[in-house]
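[READ THE FOLD]
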Amino acid sequence: MTLPQLAHLVALLETGSFTRAAEMLHLSQPAFSRSIQLLEGELGASLVDRIGKRNEPTPLGRLVGQRARRVLAEVEEIRREAEMLAQGETGAIRLGLGAAPSALLSVPLMQHLMDQYPKLRVKLSRGPTESLLVSLRERVLDALVVHVRTLDNDEDLEVAPMPALSSGFICRLGHPLAGQAQPALADVLRYPIVSTGLSPEIRRRLAGAAAPGGFDLHMECEDISYLLDIVERSDALYLGVLASARALTKLNRLLQLPAPQDFNVQAHFAFVTLRGRSVSPATRIARQCCFQTIQDAAGA
């Protein structure tokens, strides 16, 4: 039994035709048929039922076909791993980022790769987790950094949790709440709240504090820079990862409000790859940089 024979069987099962399968593999039909016959002879049973022009798998054919696909996929992964190791630090990384990870990681990651790995190519994509996951599963992206709350418990994902980051409220200098030692959550919610999105749990907690009027975000946007610009120009408050606004708070353009009582919130991001897919050296380099950047932000 050889790998080409297994590939021939998979092609036959996918096309249902000796002629089309042979053409697809650029083989003569007699040579293709002989390959299938040799495989059947080795296994001692038919793999397809030849009914006129139709070729349908036997129960054994379906079983062998399923395993053949797995074997061929593993062989392809071995080839891919060898190619990636040969590339070393000259490969490419295609990384998808959620809103807050994009604000935190884009510049440090690109700067790090430019300085330390100038031959590495990088492509960053930003968007909602749902669309990023589609791109990951279609192999358009190599990895994602997104909020854990936006992920489902999908068995095809390898999820590596990152250090937790503090979340809270950001306001402009001179905001009516800026002088309070610890504003009550109900007082905070009297002002417009803007964010990249909130988990159901946080929404419930805010709705309870805002009762009886309930709670809803005044503005929701994937681009944190837009939200912080609005906060700097109005009495709106940004609710999200505090490190996202650190550059502006250090410049005294924005101010971090003290956390309201019983409202200490953390954000949990994760580095996500496809389970069973080989991780390239470029992806490992990006992963290490992302973890270090988040660790630094958590400790700052």
